[in-house]
Amino acid sequence: MPVAVVTDSTAYLPATVADGSLTVVPLHVVLGGVSGREGVEVNPAEVAVALAARRVAVTTSQPTPAEFAQVYDQLFATGVDGIVSVHLAGALSGTVGAASTAAGEAAGPVEVVDSCSAAMGVGFPALAAARAAAQGADLSGVRDAALHTIDRTSTFFYVDTLEHLRRGGRINAASALLGTALAVKPLLEVSAGGISMRDKVRTAARALDRLVALALEAAGDGPVEVAVHHLAAAERADWVADALRERLGDRLCELYTSEVGAVVAAHVGPGLAGVVVHRLPAPAHSLLDDQL
Fold it and tell me: What is the DSSP letter of 26?
């Protein structure tokens, strides 16, 4: 039997490929004291409204080891040889830790991979792993497909305010102060070390220009896949996507645009615009076009 691939709900996979080739474990969002599974019981629109109103507390939590153990047990019961589990950055969430705890007690071998990213920064490595599994790679080959994709993926985002990230403990108070002083607009990057400031500009329009510039710099000279994310800011996402299509031209093999889910929404607030760039190896090959 092939190797199975597991990811979590923060991957925000394109609907066109979320077809059962990967198993998705949902994170939890606590909205006004009521916990629900991301994408099942809680959606991003609810979170955006709650954050804007500031009358309802919004927090998040990772899946428990027991939830991962149940998924792993079910997959091994089908006869798979092993599992590769690709997840949200360990610097941002305990999801990798919960998966690792469950992996240590699983009925078979489980390789847990820290994506060092979020959104399609998780999704692109998970898709690469699923493609490798579909082509018959063994456990180490499927894991390596994810790791190689992580090395070629960059994630940037813009938020109107750093306050939501500060409240959630994802960025410190000093950085949040920098983001609010003199109406400075922050450009941030997600990496193995967590969230770091890449640049600061004065207006939202200039921030979107800079977001495009960072994406182009990350793309280099070769073919790429790109995901553009937003929260309650579809016009911003459309503008960024159009700019990248024009500037990247034939080097753009795939572009995916979507609203982030409830977990990321809870930490960034309305107005988010983000870009994930996956530099494809030669020859150019689009993971999103594969039949997984």
Answer: -
